[in-house]
Amino acid sequence: MNLGVFSISLAVKDIKTSREFYEKLGFEAFDGNEAENWLMLRNGDILIGLFQDMFEHNTLTFNPQDVRGIQKALKQKGVSIIKEADETTTGPEHIVLMDPDGNPILIDQH
């Protein structure tokens, strides 16, 4: 199962302050809109998403090519999915699940 590109989506209190902090660590914004309270930052192969007032918890995020196929495989393995993808559609969609410790996992096909 190919989960695609990995990033951590951070639930931040102040996107401007968080951006400035991570820029000091060598990250650069490459996508998003600070005015809309979300940014994607990159440092080499490391990706961090900053999301103000969008997520309650920090979230592990994967961006695959086929979220519906992943959903099908996870269901066959008995994994509980909190938010399922609509399998009657194509294109962008996402699923959400929790690991055994309550950490949210977003699998988001763009």
Quickly list its features.
2 helices, single chain, seven-stranded mixed sheet, 7 strands, alpha/beta, 40% strand, 110 residues, 2,3-Dihydroxybiphenyl 1,2-Dioxygenase, domain 1
What do these coordinates show?
- It is a single chain.
- With 110 residues, the chain is an alpha/beta fold.
- The chain has one domain: 2,3-Dihydroxybiphenyl 1,2-Dioxygenase, domain 1 (Roll), CATH 3.10.180.
- 18% of the residues lie in helices and 40% in strands.
- A seven-stranded mixed beta sheet has the order 2-3-4-1-5-7-6, covered by helices on one side.
List the helices and strands and how they pair.
Elements: E1 5-12, H1 15-24, E2 28-33, E3 38-43, E4 46-52, E5 59-63, H2 67-76, E6 93-98, E7 104-109
Parallel strand pairs: 1-4, 5-7
Antiparallel strand pairs: 1-5, 2-3, 3-4, 6-7
Summed up, what is this model?
The protein is of the alpha/beta class and 110 residues long. The protein has helices spanning 15-24, 67-76, and strands at 5-12, 28-33, 38-43, 46-52, 59-63, 93-98, 104-109. The longest helix is centred in the first third of the chain and has 10 residues, at 15-24.
CATH architecture: Roll
CATH-defined superfamily? 2,3-Dihydroxybiphenyl 1,2-Dioxygenase, domain 1
How would a crystallographer describe the biggest sheet? 7 strands, mixed
Q: What is the CATH T-level topology?
A: 2,3-Dihydroxybiphenyl 1,2-Dioxygenase, domain 1
